[in-house]
Input
Amino acid sequence: MKKQTLATIAILALGLVCAMWSTGEARYRYGRNYNSQYDQYGRYQGYRSSYQGRVLIPAGTSMNVRLDTQVSTENAQSGDTWSGTVSQSVIAGNRVVIPAGTPVEGVVTSSIQGTHDNRPEMSLAIRRVTVDGRTQAVNAVTEPIVAGSNRAKKLGVIAGGAAAGALLGHAVARGEHGTLIGGILGGAAGYGLSRHALRTMQLKPGTVLTFTTRGDVLAYR
Output
């Protein structure tokens, strides 16, 4: 009888030790991502996500970025990279999570040449930001930019012009016989450039675009 009792006590003690070890292991393993499920008085609190040292940037957050590189539909293709700088600090939870001046890496998601029927169009997206030397993945997009639209004009999008044609006509038109030739050449060059302007558009360095995050981002701060 004593042997059975001692064996039962030993089994219970072993089970208690294993349970305590498992709880300690779980706390150690998940402690960085969750607050302890017990307070200092041993009362159960439940798991609460904290992600120490990280701040949640919710989906739909706006990011203003200044382009550091030129991007043009003439040579840019989907997947090409571009670089920029955050022009206005991004705030989440009353904290600056992405400060102004943060380097940005992005890609061209679409680059469409214009035709006689359609205007050139371009879309960009953010893929990474580097805060305090730490690279953070970000998925943020901007609305398509269409050449000739009010938005494109406000952004200062370059779509070409006929100035070169006028200069060519002026250079050739010297003397009585050159006037007609210069006018024809100038008009032809201007027309050619006008058609070219309808085919291409260019975002120059310094252009500020507003991007919107498509998903939640956990930023290190």
